Amino acid sequence: MVVALIVTLVDYLGRWSTPGFWVRNLVMHALYWSPRIAGAFLLTGLLSHSVVNQGFRRWRAAVLSVAVLIGLWSSLVEPGMVRVRETTFSGIPASTEPVRLVVISDIHWGLFFRDDQLVDLVDRLNALEVDAVMVAGDWTHEPPPDLTAGLAPLAKIRHPVFAVLGNHDVESPGPPLTGPLKAALQTHGVQLLEGRVVPWKGWELVGLDDQWGGHPQLQVKKLWPQPTSMGTSPPSVRLVLAHQPDTIALLPKGAAFLSFAGHTHGGQIWIPGLTPWVLRNTNSEQPWWNGVYQTRGGPLLVTPGIGTIGLPARLGVVPTIDVVTLQR
Question: What pLDDT, in 10s, does the model give residues 19-70?
């Protein structure tokens, strides 16, 4: 643990850090390094105590061993178990082309999601036969100072990349890195969509600001000046990308053929009963956390994300690359 604390302090220095939260940030650094450096020793010690002791001490050591084992699994194993989830939507408008899209979110490159994991993610994306990659924000979390160098693997993605920023990218909360982050992403070929309509293969790609750190309400009024009606208007050719699922609740009726969002991490650590309560009270007003939902503005796909926040752990919610097929 002493070694873990020393490494924590060294790693903490020189990173982008959220102002006023240095204690929290230091604790998060310790939570990242302690399982990696001291976890195996702690588990070995507890297991030995459960063997050599008797009675209550044996049972206490056994219970703690199970708790530590779950902690090591959730911090060292499950965050690396990236899965690919396929979803198909039919009935696309006649004026659009059938496409396959990757949808990811919440990479949180930096403190918990390291450089080698970013390289591995890019390799996974390049192995998929898709037409574009959609990234629903939260690119960073307490990253190294040189964002352009750190995010350089993104330039190797062989598909067009369309994206928005998330709340941790626009100081809600997060360090003041929005300007340098935008510059780094654009340097590596990422097309930011906030407040824009980009024609692509007969579709209109629309991006909206993060709801905590931006002004998506104003963008919705500007981009959809007249309310639409599914009964009188042709099917929308718009694909909407936002960070928070709540943002999609701002759309008028029938505003999009399909929307994408992230932010919730699918709960990240799923405890039945508790995790949904936490999500509704701290993270999202709408019960849209992971999967496909029907909303007033049209169908919504919420992806559970790639990285982690708060705790460097996932339990019952593995990192997910969503592959979405839009067909006739």
Answer: 888 899 899 999 999 999 999 999 999 999 999 999 999 999 999 999 999 9
Of 234, 257, 209, whose CA–CA distance to 98 is shortest?
257
Provide the edge-to-edge strand list for the sheet that holds 99-104: 83-89, 320-326, 99-104, 132-136, 161-164, 190-192
Burial (CB count within 10 angstroms: exposed 0-12, middle 13-18, buried 19+), residue 208: buried
Q: How far apart are CA 201 and CA 131, in angstroms?
A: 10
- Residue 153: which residues within 8 A CB-CB, separation 6 or more? 115, 118, 119, 121, 122
Rg value, the chain, Cα = 21
Do β-strands 190-192 and 161-164 pair in parallel, antiparallel, or remain unpaired?
parallel
User: pTM higher than 0.90 for the full model?
Assistant: yes
Sequence-distant (≥ 6) Cβ neighbours of residue 216 within 8 angstroms: 208, 209, 210, 242, 247, 250
Spell out a b/e string for 283-310, using b for 16 or more CB atoms within 10 Å of the CB, else e: bbebebbbeebebebbbbbbbbbbbbbe
Contacts of 15 (CB under 8 A, 6+ apart): 110, 111, 142, 143, 144, 145
Helix (H, G, I), strand (E, B) or coil at 255: coil
Residues in the chain: 328
Nearest to 145 by CA among 6, 12, 9, 306: 12
Of 128, 157, 185, 141, which Cα lies nearest the Cα of 321? 128
First-last CA distance in the chain: 58
Of the candidates 4, 6, 13, 69, the residue with the CA atom closest to the CA atom of residue 31? 4
